[in-house]
Amino acid sequence: MPTAFQTAARRCVAASLSLFSLVFSPGAAAAPGDGMLPREVEAALARAKVPREAVTLLVADAEGQRPPRLAWRSQEPVNPASVMKLVTTYAGLDLLGPAFAWNTPVYIDGPVRAGVLEGNLYIEGRGDPKLVIERLWLLLRKVQALGIQRIAGDIVLDRSAFDTGAFDPGAFDGRPLRAYNAGADALLVNYKSVQLSFTPDAASQVARVDVVPPLAGVAVPAAVPLAASANGQQPGCGDWRTQLRGDFQGGQFQFGGAYPAGCGEGSWIVAYPEPESFAARAIAGLWAQMGGQLQGTARDGRVPANLAPAFEMQSPPLAEVVRDINKYSNNVMADQLFLTLGLTQKRKGTFPAARSALRQWWNERIGTGEGQPVFDNGSGLSMEGRVTAAGLARMLQVAWRSPVMPELMSSLPLVGVDGTLRRRQLRSGAGAHLKSGTMPEYGVAGLAGYVDGASGRRYVLVAIANHANAAAARGAFDALVDWAAQD
User: Fold this and answer.
1) Is the distance from CB of 316 to CB of 411 less than 8 angstroms?
2) DSSP string, 393-435
3) Which of 103, 339, 393, 480 has its CA 20 to 30 A from that of 345?
C-alpha cells in the first residue's frame, strides 16, 4: 500500500499531467507544420499504399517541456499490437519495483526415509514467467538435495494463483502450435513449449532428434531420415519444417518427411497441443531423466493449508524479466506480469483484476483525461486493445522522469543491435530504443519508444498504423525515426 506521502505525490503528478495533456489536445497542439507530415514519411506511406488517415504519429520532447514536433491524429484510439507491452512493463516496474521476484514454493507432506519421500511433493505456482527448463532442473535438483530419490505419493501442482478461465491457444489466429499463442499459467513451465533439435549424422543418414524438456508419456522418435541427395548434391535447406511434415497431436510426435542435411543443426520450437497437461508431463519427464522415481502421478491439486515450504525457488528480478518481454516481445511473459499486477494489487490473479489495477495506476500516474487505454491483456496480442499516441507519449514522458527509467529504456530493443529490431537499419544511424508491434493478418503495425536527436535532445516517438497494408508501413516508421533524429 502507498504511504500518505506517495499518494499525495501521485496526485500532484496526475494534476500536473492533466495540465500537460492540454499540449496534446487537438485545439492546442500547435506544433510547427501541424496537419503536415514530413516529406519522407509521406513518400514512404504512399509507396506502402497506406493512407495518412490510417496512421497516428507523435514526436515530442522526452522531458515534456515544449509542444510536440509532430502530432498527427494523436488522439485517435488505435490497436497498438505488442507496443502495449510498454504499458505493462512500465506499470510493473513502477508498482512492483525492478528488484521484485516471483517465488515458487515447494512442499513435502511426509517423512524422508532411505531416499523415499513417504508422501506427496507439492509445487505451488505463483506466476513466475521464467520457470524455464534450466531453472526447473535446479528446482528438482534442490528436491534431490533434500535426500529424495523416490516419491511414494504424487507430484501435486498447485496452479490456483491465477484464474484465467478456459483458454484456446488457437482462438486468436488458428495457430495453436505457435509458441507466441501460449496462455498464462500460475505454474508456467518453459512457456508451455518444447524445443526439438535435429542434428545430421551423415554416416547413418539420419538426423538425431532431441526434445527439451522430456515429456512423460509422449513418444518422440530418436531420429528422422536425412533427405536423399540428388545427382550427388545435398538438397538445399529451404522450409525444412514443412519438409519434415511434423504431426504433434496425441501422445506422440511423428514426422512423415525427411530432414535436409544441408541445414546443419536445426531447432523447432512447438507449443504443446495439450497445454493443460504440459507442466505435469514436463516435471514428471525431467524428474525421471534426472534419475528420480515417481510411484504415483503428476497431477493438479492444492497445497494443504497446514504445510510450510521446504524451500522456495526465486525467479530472476523483474528488471531482467521486462528485458526479455520487450527485447523479444514475449507474449506469455507479458501476460504473466499483467496477471501478477492483478494478484498483487487486487489480490486476484484474473484478467479483470489486472485491468482494474492497470486502470487505477494509469489514472494516478498518467492522467484521467481522454485517450484512456483499453487493456485486454498484457501482451497486446488482442483485437480489443486500444491506446492513443498522445496517451502513450505521455506515459513515456512520465517514465523518462521516473526512477525506473533506466530499467525500462534498457529493456527496449536498440535498433540495429539487438532484440526484435537487430536487423533493422536506419539511414541516419540514429540511436533509438523502440518497441515494435505487428499483427499483419489483422492490419496492425507500430513502433514506440525513445530516439536520440543529433542535438543531444531525446524524443519520445509513437507511430502506429491500423490498415490492411500496415505491415508495409515499416519504411514510413523508419523515416519518421530518421526525421526525429535530425533535429
Assistant:
1) no
2) HHHHHHHHTSTTHHHHHHHSPBTTTSGGGTT---TT---EEEE
3) 393
Per the DSSP assignment, residues forming a β-bridge with 201 are 206
Check if the beta carbon of residue 487 is closer than 8 Å to that of residue 455: yes
CA distance linking residue 478 with residue 484, whole number of Å? 10
d(CA 367, CA 7): 14
Q: Answer left, alpha or beta for residue 159, where phi above 0 means left and psi between -120 and 50 means alpha.
A: alpha
Confidence of residue 251 (pLDDT cuts 50, 70, 90): confident
Beta bridge partners of 314: 103
Q: Are 175 and 381 in contact (CB under 8 A)?
A: no
Distance CA 389, CA 372 (A): 11
Question: What would the mean pLDDT of 48-64 be, rounded to a whole number?
Answer: 96
Domains and CATH numbers, the chain: 4-99+317-485 (3.40.710.10), 103-168+276-314 (3.50.80.20), 190-275 (no CATH)
Cα separation, 278 vs 185, whole angstroms: 11
Separation CA 144–CA 30 (nearest Å): 67
C-alpha cell at 64: 515534456
Residue with C-alpha cell 510450510?
A: 308
Query: 40's torsion region: left (phi>0), alpha (psi -120 to 50) or beta?
Result: alpha
Q: Tell me the pairing of strands 155-158 and 121-124.
A: parallel
Q: Which helix (H) or strand (E) holds 458?
A: strand 458-466
Residue 87 belongs to what H/E stretch?
Answer: helix 85-96
Nearest to 56 by CA among 41, 66, 67: 41
pLDDT tens-digit series, residues 395-423: 999 999 999 999 999 999 999 899 999 98
| pLDDT confidence bin for 300, thresholds 50/70/90 | very high
Q: What is the pTM of this model?
A: 0.90
- Other CB atoms within 10 Å distance of the CB of residue 373: 21
Q: 290 in helix, strand or coil?
A: coil
What is the Cα–Cα distance from 317 to 126, expressed in whole angstroms? 14
CB 434 within 8 A of CB 59: no
The radius of gyration of the chain's CA atoms, rounded to the nearest angstrom, is 25
CA-CA distance, 276 to 95, in Å (whole number)? Answer: 30
User: Distance (Å, rounded) from C-alpha 312 to C-alpha 138?
Assistant: 11
